Amino acid sequence: MTVLLQYVSQKPMEFGKIHNLDAINLTLPPGAAFNAKIWASVEPSQHPNVFIGGPVWANKDYVGKVYPSTAKERDFLHYYVRQFNTIELNLTHYQIPTAGMIQKWKAEAAGSPDRSGFTYCPKFPQVISHERQLVATEALTEEFVNAVLSLEEFLGMTFLQLPPQFGPEKWPVLEAYLKSLPDELDVAVEFRHPDWFSKAAVWQQTLERLYLLRRHAVITDVAGRRDVLHMGLSSPVLTLRFIANEGHPTDYIRSDAWIQRLKTWFEKGLQTAYLFIHGGGDNDTAPELILHWIRELNKHCGLNLREPVLQPKVVQGSLF
To answer: Which run of H or of E encompasses 174?
Structure first.
């Protein structure tokens, strides 16, 4: 079952996928108006927490590049946590993790060389978010929450991806669900229905409500849905899902714009950033892009993030 779920989590991301990039304005928008309230409530940190990684560890293309050439699939997580310091844990979208899985994940994370430690960022199960749309999910939610809280110091941000048909009229359902979750569980909400963003007043009110609930908002940067790039914060914690286009030159242009925005936000008081870099497709190009982000963050934001060590892929039959 675990192998199957790892395969599922690698399937190409269709949300916001587009082939004609020339028709899209990929410029990074200004910050949301509500952000001013966040900056007024915090002081800039000399050492913001930055966690950066990808959405999958079970990728055979990483063998010989991210992982040793001798790596077996059962050891992929072992090597992943020694290269990156977080992961967008999509596996939990398809299955509530068992106690055995949690223990294995904790044991592997304990071997991370990062000073700030390794964090898993689990996605809420789709049976809760998509199939039941947060209704009558008490038992499932309790099972999921108890499982991920047992990750203890290795638990980072959890994120609740709402289905595309979940619009602003369902706010009372979302509010009741978020209030039911324990305070010690960090939760970021990913909104996908266009009506959350089509009227500025609705989105402003949504950020205000999340702020009062002490919950966070996911920002998604994907070419085909620029509305979900809302640039709004409901706390001094950023959860960013950056969806690249399989190594297209604009991937790096967009990335560099984000580095400069993060520099500004750190100076204003951003305390923590969870940065999930998707390469697009099967995420084969994600490691190179993550390395670029880390180098540029260190250079422009005065950070000291550890760089992953990537080996050039050897092309079979080539001597040079």
So the answer is: helix 171-180
